[in-house]
Amino acid sequence: MSQARSPTRIGPEGVEWLLLAALAIAFTPAVIAMSEVWSRHDYYSHGYLVPFGALWAASAQRNRLPKLPITREPLRGGILLGLSLGLSLIGRLASIVSLEGLALVLSVASAVYITRGMAWLRSLGFSISYLIFMVPIPESLIIPLIAKLQLFVSAGAIQIAHVLSLPVIRDGNVMHLESGESLFVAEACSGITSILTLVPLAVFLAYFTQQTFARRVLLIASVIPLAMLVNLTRVVVTIYVAHAYGSEVATGEWLHNWAGIATYVLGCVALLAVGSAMTRFIPVEKATT
């Protein structure tokens, strides 16, 4: 008679891979739903890059992680994972993409907590938290914000145009030229794209290039004035081109697209300049002994 073989046991690494595969399958609909939002709105296009930024940040811990103790927490982590799956289900049934995205980030944290423990979760805290930037903001919050930004940029651009002796009057976010033509401060010119795409970059730069909390906050906070400044510049330049060459030239697809790219690049350069200036001119306070 042949001896019966004992069932093969799955080791800890096998469990980790099974959990990873299960989460990948469970949250595929959430990733698809978010990618549709990323593709539909320019101000969410950075969502495709956020996971790569998070992976790069995690790779910066590659020498530290193997030295950390592994204390698996299947019970507490399982509760956290169950909560994330429940949130994902609610978000899916209610068509709330933001809730699905938050559930995905929470599930990643849960998986690390289950398989590696709190020390690993703390070490990877920035990388996991950074994934928040790929989650779309609910439309009920973003649409009113865009409307306010459009009015702010319109009002500011008109003031600058008057200083430059450009004859233009404003009606809400519509600007009427002396020629009788009108310009509309659209969503793309409101500054929302610059703000939502520059904030993740600012957080990344602040974390890796600034040594104090105050300097990190200052760099991140600089995004809003920088974003509004570059967009005000874009609108004023558009007014000038429309005044000189007509609104069709100023709002043509080619010029409009390149203006958007130039605005983003200018915002990035300005942010890098602020970070460099802070590093150079604001000394790091030395800890007293």
Can you walk me through this structure?
- The chain is mainly α and 289 residues long.
- It folds into two domains: 12-136, no CATH class; 140-281, no CATH class.
- It is 69% helix and 4% strand.
- It is built from 13 helices and three strands; from the N terminus they run H-H-H-H-H-H-H-H-E-E-E-H-H-H-H-H.
- The chain has helices spanning 12-26, 28-40, 50-59, 74-94, 97-115, 118-123, 125-130, 139-163, 192-209, 213-221, 223-245, 247-250, 253-281; strands at 168-171, 174-177, 182-184.
- A three-stranded antiparallel β-sheet has the order 1-2-3, covered by helices on one side.
- Helix 8 packs across helix 11, helix 9 packs parallel to helix 13 (253-281) and helix 11 packs antiparallel against helix 13 (253-281).
- The longest helix is centred in the C-terminal third of the chain and has 29 residues, at 253-281.
- The radius of gyration is 25 Å and the shape is elongated.
- The termini are far apart.
- The model has no long low-confidence stretch (mean pLDDT 88).
Q: Output the number of helix runs.
A: 13
Radius of gyration: 25 Å
Neighbour order of strands in the largest sheet: 1-2-3
**Gross morphology:** elongated
Per DSSP, what share of the residues sits in E-state strands of 2 or more residues? under 5%
Fraction of residues in helices? Answer: 55-70%
Catalogue the unreliable spans.
Answer: none
What's the number of structural domains? 2
Largest sheet: 3 strands, antiparallel
Span between N and C termini? Answer: 76 Å
Give the ordered list of helices and strands: HHHHHHHHEEEHHHHH
Q: How many beta-strand runs?
A: 3
Question: How confident is the prediction overall: mean pLDDT?
Answer: 88
**Class inferred from helices and paired strands:** mainly alpha
